[in-house]
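Appendix B, example 12.
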Amino acid sequence: MDVSSRALWRKSYLLPSVLCSHCSGIVPFRWVTKRTVRMASLSSSAAQSAAIPDAAASSSAATHGAPSSSAATDAAASSSSSSSEASASSAIGFLSLCHRLKTTKRAGWVRKGVREPESVADHMYRMSVMALIADYSPDIDRDRCIKMALVHDIAEAIVGDITPSDGVPKDEKSRREREAINHMCNLLGGGSRAKEMLELWMEYEENSSLEAKVVKDFDKVEMILQALEYEQEQGMILDEFFQSTAGKFQTDVGKAWALEITSRRRKKQE
């Protein structure tokens, strides 16, 4: 190398080629000065410093957003808890009122002097079992029959078991029971379950569906079956219960079961 070349080398401080860290590949081999490298290094440091506040701001935003999300979750949980407590309170209040069905004795048996007569709840329970086990035609909804059997006398938790011998006009009896069922639905808190209960009760009262006719028959079937059992257990004669239902069954299953009960009674009397 001649004198002029060496002078140029010292003046420019040329360095070997380096890899460009901001490129996806290797840049062609070239000569760069110390100053070029230093400026590139400062530029890279400045870019990194600028990125830090952005990251911190993003982190801060996420951090500050967290309490809002948590607060919303807590509020929703609190609302759900309050709703559950209200629902539980309504349900227990309703069920406590239904307890009266277990302690209210069926008036017809009390009047006839039956010892330890069944309660309204006893009657409703066996009717529900009847609805569960019966064979139906395809056009009858068994589940609806079960539900209807469960609620058909539920108003008696308030009005008691009103029978024809009480001398209460039919319209007045219906008014009292309708008022009672409305009160019970309100006690339950309204909503879909209360609405369903009221609809089932009204359907039964009005005898407005095949299911209502089936359950009306079960009401009579359960009564005469209970009458037969009291006759056998307590040596009683309860003809009036059989006479009051004779010829009043509306469905095939009701007629078949009533015939079976009366046939068994005749055999016992022979």
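The longest strand covers residues 14-15. The chain has eleven helices and two strands.
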